[in-house]
Amino acid sequence: MNRDLKTQTALIALARTRRMQRALAHAYIHRDAPLPTLRTSLGFMTSTATTTDEVTGLGHTMSLLGISSAEGVAYVVEEIGPKDAPVIYRLWLRGPRVGHLVPIHAWYEQCSDPSEIRARIAAIATTLEPAAASTTEAWMLSTRIVQRRALRVSRPDAPLHADGSGPVAAPIRKFALQLRVEPVSGVGPSGHTTVTAYLRPNATLEEVWSVPGEPGMAIARVSYTGIPNGLGLSKDTMVLLTE
Questions:
Q1: Per-residue confidence at 67, pLDDT binned at 50, 70, 90?
Q2: What is the pLDDT of residue 35?
Q3: 42: left (phi over 0), alpha (psi -120 to 50) or beta
Q4: What is the per-residue pLDDT for 156?
Q5: CA torsion angle 18 20 24 25 (round to 10)
Q6: Residue 86's CB: how many other CB atoms inside 10 A?
Q7: Which of the listed ranges 8-17, 45-54, 102-111 does the model predict with the highest average pLDDT?
């Protein structure tokens, strides 16, 4: 007879019994407490405190400049502030980078003056084909939280730790948020992308355009909480929709 095996089995059974006793005692103590609801749990997961002083602004907005059929790209402009140079992107419509939104770094390596960047954007806009706006009601946006993470951000006016080692870092929530745009009818182009959202995983479908010469292709502009300033400022992204 193996006494060691018998002793191990008895200890495991005892541990299980103790855990069950503690669970029953805890349930009895809190028997009159209200049950948590789904709304409460989601509110806990997505709510957060202000991370900075209140700020005003419209966030970062994107606009579709036009389509270059020869290059197989759509040009997108992102406005990040009235005094800052806008960021220009290529959204690839075909090839190995299809669906990727890539900033044109070479423009900013040669020049960083906002007026010159805007002049180059105005010049290239004359060579592009315009995209026809589609009815947003014909499309639906669905979101999915792929991953929840947390960051700690120090505020200038935050109180110091008890030992005086430094300011207390305020926690904020960070999400890997998947955005998926599909036609309401279920027939037509669709697409998805994943962005980094802060504070709350909210997103809105703002605009949809049809790509000229490509009946099975469209581009959607989605706004989400992508800047963790104050209560959170919006940021845009472009999603390529294909069949």
A1: very high
A2: 63
A3: alpha
A4: 56
A5: 20
A6: 18
A7: 102-111
All structural domains of the chain with their residue ranges? 61-242
Please state the pTM of the whole predicted model: 0.72
Q: Which residues pair with 236 in a beta bridge?
A: 223
Question: What span, in angstroms and rounded, lies between the C-alpha atoms of 227 and 166?
Answer: 25
pLDDT in tens, 117-146: 999 999 999 999 999 999 999 999 999 999
Residue with tokens 């090839």: 95
> Kind of pairing, strands 73-79 and 87-92?
antiparallel
Q: Which of 1, 47, 68, 41 is nearest to 175 (CA)?
A: 47
> Tokens 């200890």 — which residue?
11
Those residues whose C-beta lies under 8 Å from the C-beta of residue 131, and which sit 6 or more positions away, are 64, 66, 67, 74, 209, 210, 211, 212, 219
Provide the β-strand partners of residue 196.
176
d(CA 117, CA 111): 7
For residue 190, give the DSSP letter: B
Can you list the pairs that 83-92 forms with residues at least 24 positions away whose Cβ atoms lie under 8 Å? 83/114, 84/114, 85/112, 85/113, 85/114, 85/117, 85/118, 86/114, 86/117, 86/118, 86/121, 88/117, 88/121, 89/238, 91/219, 91/238, 91/240, 92/240
